[in-house]
Amino acid sequence: MKILIVSSIDPEAIDRLRQRHAVECAFNPPPALLREKIKDCAVIICRSGVELDAAALSCAPRLGLIVRAGSGFDNLDLEYIRTHNLRMVRIPGPGAQAVAEMTFALLLGLARRVVEADRLWRQGRWVKNEMIGNLLTGKTLGIVGCGNIGTRVGQLGVAWGMQVLGCVDSSSAKESERLREKGITLTNFAEVLRAADYLTVHVPLQNSTRYLINAAALAAMKPTAYLVNMARGGVVEEAALLAALQHKRLAGAALDVHEQEGEGKISPLAALSNVILTPHLGAMAADAQREIGRIAVQHIEAFEAEYHRR
After folding, report:
1. Residue 256: per-residue pLDDT
2. Active site residue 20
3. Are 158 and 164 within 8 A, CB to CB?
4. Which end of the chain has fewer CB within 10 Å, C or N?
5. What stretches of 67-210 show up as alpha helix (H) in DSSP?
6. What whole-number distance in Å separates Cα of residue 61 and Cα of residue 64?
7. From the candidates 24, 101, 191, 261, which is the catalytic residue?
């Protein structure tokens, strides 16, 4: 089978696929190149950052399987996939713990001003007395989106001695009890915003969540609170966040995902010392990527067995 890989995945997985298939790697191709490369492939492997829209997918008459090497689906045309009977598999599990741990890395970085202190020390400034930070222990952690990742973040918060509140789009008594057993109190979005000393965001980007964290949401938060966005860039309205930080209506923020991502993009938030910006590193832990690659190969091998029976 012809397999097109448009996002970087674990090299061992690529080597294994090459033993049995014609594999082409074209990482992060521009749209015109993607439409050319996709023409005769049976399988495509992608992560976030590559748009598989109808214009691209319609160029692939032999395509049968899309492997989303991660959890998000905002870069996929789900309607086209459904109406054309394409198989799409996601691999959300292995990256979830990596994203949760990255969330806590950013929480600690904000609370203890690690990045700011590092930058100043590299400039020769010994700012020990000025770099007074805050504890996480005893504070309230608010989680917007208590799914696979958000629940793991909540469990880390409980282990850290935090009071953990969460909200979901819709819940049941069984879901509330499941989260309660993990130390997470399920409440509504407004209460999470109001109570949080640290707010983390873990929801998919879709029409209902675009700019969920907007000027009104930020205004509902404590001026001493910190925000961490691990969802998608479009979930947080970055212009509103910038204004809130500039007017000291928020203590700080960390964003691993951005409205504009890619080489050469510089966010206006980069000018603020109380902001940490990372290039969508959430799932980029070697252990997680190896497991994602292993599962991707399994999915493709199962599809291959069907492919040859056609």
Report:
1. 98
2. no
3. yes
4. C
5. 78-83, 93-111, 114-122, 148-159, 173-181, 189-195
6. 9
7. 261
What's the CA gap between 237 and 252, in Å, rounded? 15
Question: For the chain, which domains are there?
Answer: 2-90+286-309 (3.40.50.720), 94-277 (3.40.50.720)
**Positive or negative, the Cα torsion across 143, 71, 288, 50?**
negative
Q: How confident is the model at residue 128 (pLDDT cuts 50, 70, 90)?
A: very high
**What are 134-164's pLDDT values in tens digits?**
999 999 999 999 999 999 999 999 999 999 9
For the question of residue 261 being annotated catalytic, the response is yes
Burial label for 89, CB within 10 Å (0-12, 13-18, 19+), is middle
Paired residues of 254 in beta bridges: 228, 276
Structure tokens at 6: 């448009």
Residues 6+ positions from 221 with CB-CB distance below 8 Å: 193, 194, 196, 199, 227, 249, 250
The question of whether 258 is a catalytic residue gets the answer no
| Catalytic residue from among 202, 280, 299, 304 | 280
- Contacts with 290 (C-beta within 8 Å, 6 or more apart), sequence order: 10, 12, 13
3-class secondary-structure state, position 140: strand
Distance, in Å, from the CA atom of 73 to the CA atom of 59, rounded to the nearest integer, reads 20
Selected catalytic residue, list 232, 237, 291, 299: 232
pLDDT per residue as tens digits for the range 93-124:
999 999 999 999 999 999 999 999 999 999 99
